[in-house]
């Protein structure tokens, strides 16, 4: 599975803690992250991931392009609900693309943990069927 890890500034410590706690699960998958989030995760874990630009500088859109091509399977985006974001339209576009392409999208620690546990149990394997349908 291809998994994107994204976090707003005030949520970066939480996503690092999440990556540390679920490192054994995440290590089995292809990981992608926006700029600083990716750097912080790599510094705290042994995980290897592909880093994109910072979210406000286009990283969200780079991940969105992968979603539009059905090249992403799970998005974990720990959003800061209490701080206004200048790139909010990009975030809304990301949500819309995930809805269009049936890609699970976790926006907080609780939903992220549920998604990672489901991933571990094979409950997201239906994404393989989606990939095959799109190849046909």
List keywords for this structure.
136 residues, alpha/beta, Rossmann fold, five-stranded parallel beta sheet, 5 strands, 15% strand, EC 4.2.3.3, Methylglyoxal_synth_AS, MGS-like_dom_sf, MGS-like_dom, lyase
Q: How many distinct folded domains?
A: 1
Largest sheet: 5 strands, parallel
Structural class: alpha/beta
**Low-confidence runs:** none
CA-CA gap between termini: 19 Å
* Helix-strand sequence: EHHEHEHEHEHH
Strand order of the largest sheet: 3-2-1-4-5
Q: Per CATH, what is the topology?
A: Rossmann fold
CATH class: Alpha Beta
Number of strands: 5
Strand coverage percent:
5-15%
Shape designation: globular
Number of helices: 7
Mean pLDDT: 91
CATH architecture descriptor text: 3-Layer(aba) Sandwich
Cα radius of gyration in angstroms = 14 Å
Q: State the helicity in percent bands.
A: 40-55%
The named CATH superfamily: Methylglyoxal synthase-like domain
Enzyme class: lyase
InterPro entries: Methylgl_synth (IPR004363), Methylglyoxal_synth_AS (IPR018148), MGS-like_dom (IPR011607), MGS-like_dom_sf (IPR036914)
GO biological process, one term: methylglyoxal biosynthetic process
Function: Catalyzes the formation of methylglyoxal from dihydroxyacetone phosphate.
Secondary structure elements and pairings:
Elements: E1 2-7, H1 12-21, H2 23-26, E2 30-33, H3 35-44, E3 49-51, H4 59-68, E4 74-78, H5 88-100, E5 105-106, H6 109-120, H7 126-135
Parallel strand pairs: 1-2, 1-4, 2-3, 4-5
Helix pairs in contact: 1-3, 4-5
């Amino acid at each position: 599975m291809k998994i994107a890890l994204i976090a707003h500034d005030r949520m970066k410590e939480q996503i690092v803690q999440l990556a540390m706690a679920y490192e054994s699960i995440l290590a089995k998958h292809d990981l992608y992250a926006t700029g600083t989030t990716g750097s912080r995760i790599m510094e705290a874990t042994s995980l290897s991931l592909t880093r994109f630009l910072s979210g406000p500088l286009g990283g969200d859109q780079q991940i969105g392009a992968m979603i539009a091509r059905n090249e992403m399977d799970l998005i974990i985006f720990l959003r800061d609900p209490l701080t206004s974001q200048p790139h909010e339209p990009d975030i809304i576009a990301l949500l819309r693309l995930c809805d269009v392409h049936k890609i699970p999208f976790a926006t907080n620690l609780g939903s992220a943990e549920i998604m990672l546990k489901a991933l571990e149990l094979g409950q997201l394997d239906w994404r393989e069927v989606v990939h095959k349908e799109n190849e046909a």
